[in-house]
Amino acid sequence: MINTKLGDSDLLLVIDVQNDFCPGGALAVTDGDAVVPVINRLAEGFGHVALTQDWHPAGHSSFATAHPGSAAFDTISMPYGPQTLWPDHCVQGTAGAAFHPQLDTRRAELVIRKGFRAEIDSYSAFYENDRRTPTGLAGYLRDRGLRRIFLAGLATDYCVYYSALDARRLGFDSIVIEAGCRAIDLAGSLDVAWTAMADAGVQRVGDLA
Fold first, then answer.
1. 114 an active-site residue?
2. Can 5 be counted among the known catalytic residues?
C-alpha cells in the first residue's frame, strides 16, 4: 500500500509537458494536453516541484532528418546503443519547445533541460541515454533532502519511464501517477515500460485526488 500523504521530502517531477508533445505538435502524444489540468492540481499539494524540458539543437542526432535515407521511428545504432529516430521536435527557442501555455509553472523550483548535446539523446531526467552522463538532478535532490519522487508528464513509456527507473537506481522512492501521464505506445512500448518499472520497484498510483 502506497502512503500518499505528502511531506517535505516529496517532489513532483513533471516531465516534458511541452507543445511539441501535445496535440498539434511535431511529436504529439495522443491526448497529451489532458495531463495539464491534472498536473496543475497535483502541484498544489506539493511543497516541491521540478520540471524537465526537452531542449534539442537543430539537427540533433536523434532526428530522422539528420540521417538521410532514414524515416521517423526507425531504429539505428549509436555509440551508446539503439536509438529511435524522431521527427524534429523541441528545438531550442521554438514554440514547440515551450511548456504548454496552460501548464502552471509558478511552483517549479528547478527546470532541468535535457537533450541539448547534439550527439546524444536524453530521455531521463537524471542521465543522458549513455546512462553515464548526469544532468545533476540527483545531486540537487539529495542536497535538498528530497527522497520520494512522484512523476507525471509525457510520455509514460519514454521519458517518464526512464526517469522513474533512474530514480530507483539512484536510491529514491519513485511513484508514477497514471492520471498525470500519457503514452506514445510505439509497438507495445507501454506494456514493456510498466513491466520494467514494476520489476525495478517503481510504484504506480492512479491519482492522488
1. yes
2. no
